[in-house]
Amino acid sequence: MREAHSGSLIVTGGKGGRREPLPQLDDRPTQPLRTVRPGPRPSTPSAPVRRERPRLYAIDGIRLVAALMVALHHYVGTYRVNQPHNAIWGRPVSDIMPTVFHVATYGWIGVEIFFVISGFVICMSCWGRTPRQFFTSRVMRLYPAYWFAIAFTTAVLVALPGVWDRMRPRDILLNFTMLQAGSKVGNVDGVYWTLWSELRFYLLFLVVVATGLTYRKVVLFCCVWGAAAMLAPVAKFHLLELIANPEGAWYFIAGLALYLMHRFGQDLLLWGILGMAWLMGQRELGLRIDEVEHVSGWRGSVAIFTVFLLVMVAIALGATDRVQWKWLVTAGAMTYPLYLIHYVAGTTLIHRLKDTMDARLLVAVVIVGFMALSWLVHRFVERPVAGLMKRGLDTSFARLRNAGS
């Protein structure tokens, strides 16, 4: 407890509180100084202390696995590709490769894995940063590959029609803002729906970043956001539901709690937040199966999600610190372009090439091809464009500061 010593008067009892001067204190010791040996401190709770950790290469590896799960699901594991006379394979994919189909039906969980990792990584990368730095880093990370993906996918749809409908030019142009969902305009590629959830998470977390990230503030943010996500569906208040994002909130919250475990160590409160996120997350998995996927089972989905969370706990607590494979950094960097470009363009290629080779080989060739293209996008689009954007944004924010002074 801190004690105040700034005053020079004391108030004594009696009516009106008579003020008397404090006695003057002599700075000189009245007896020789003694050396005091520290004894055992009382066992009082202390604030969480940051623990230094090396780079988490394992997370880059999980990113790549999640991206490959999603790609395999879209090619051979969706409800659409298992319908008779579907536009991609021409017949149910379960008739072509039944084992691969049943495995791939669970690949959509890679999206939920991405959300958890996003909560972890955003909290990690934003610690100690200003709102300006947060904004700049997100723009640099999201937009260059996204702009390329829109142009690439549109070009594929023009060159190879017949599988997917092409959008109107004005709607394609609106997609470049990444805000098309707010205007109820469709996506050039269906996978872009996840970016709308990411943007809403960034907007909410920016409020905490603006006040300065601390253990207490992030825990409070998790609790408040979780409460809003639980109340939004029953409140029937559209704006609250839009902001709270109940479909994705608990995955991001799980990532935030995991990062706090990584930075400060585990405690009962963080385990409670993670447990609540798992309980709410398993319900959201069931809802997505019932309303969107229609191909996988709840038990299998929850099992995969649970194993993933346990792996993330192990990573957060340092069990994978010895994993120092440098190539995982490149693998992690490829996942975002791979996710953005694989679906519409990939299924269009499969439609065109399905009769030219074995179906399993075709899927493998398409995935490897898009992985190679993703590396090229990262190397020759993301990195140079991100550098230009950073310099431009830094100059713009400097002008804003100077204009306000």
From TrEMBL:
Protein's recorded name: Peptidoglycan/LPS O-acetylase OafA/YrhL
Keywords associated with the record: Membrane, Transmembrane, Transmembrane helix
InterPro entries for the chain: Acyl_transf_3_dom (IPR002656), Acyltransferase_3 (IPR050879)
Domain Acyltransferase: 57-378
Family matches, as Pfam families: Acyl_transf_3
Basic and acidic residues bias locations: 17-29
Domain of life the protein comes from: Bacteria
Coiled coil: none
Record has Transmembrane helix as a keyword: yes
Upper classification of the organism: Bacteria, Bacillati, Actinomycetota, Actinomycetes, Kitasatosporales
Organism (species): Streptomyces pseudovenezuelae
TM region positions: 96-124, 145-164, 191-211, 218-237, 249-279, 300-319, 325-349, 361-381
Residue segments, region Disordered: 1-50
PANTHER family in the record: ACETYLTRANSFERASE, ACYL_TRANSF_3 DOMAIN-CONTAINING PROTEIN
